Write a sequence for this structure.
């Protein structure tokens, strides 16, 4: 995992805990937070409006936002399109952070790309 790029979308307690462990593994960690202030273990912090920029280089993206009207559909077709082809989207959010209004099959998501056992 060392030198891999991780973007944590939602740097609350859960997102920060994930970022801390990823940093400990030697990952290059970026975070997306409504109020972009420097945060220990996160090398770059982007404001919410900078989400697409934050996703561009991330091999791993963790969605850790709470369920609110503001965070519903945080990750949709435009954001998935900004991510590299060989990325992984890990949704640990409590709710609908990933768009479910339409099937996003033309742009694969992590669940469709994660290798299965065996």
């Amino acid at each position: 995992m060392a030198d891999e790029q991780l973007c944590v979308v939602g740097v609350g307690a859960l997102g920060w805990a994930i970022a801390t462990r990823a940093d400990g593994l030697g990952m290059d960690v970026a975070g997306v937070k409504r109020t972009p202030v420097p945060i220990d273990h996160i090398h770059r912090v982007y404001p919410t409006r900078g989400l697409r920029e934050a996703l561009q280089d991330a091999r791993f993206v963790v969605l850790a936002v709470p369920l609110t009207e503001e965070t519903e559909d945080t990750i949709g077709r435009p954001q998935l399109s900004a991510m590299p082809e060989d990325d992984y989207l890990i949704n640990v959010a409590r709710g609908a952070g990933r768009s479910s209004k339409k099937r996003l099959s033309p742009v694969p998501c992590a669940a469709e790309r994660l290798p299965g056992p065996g």
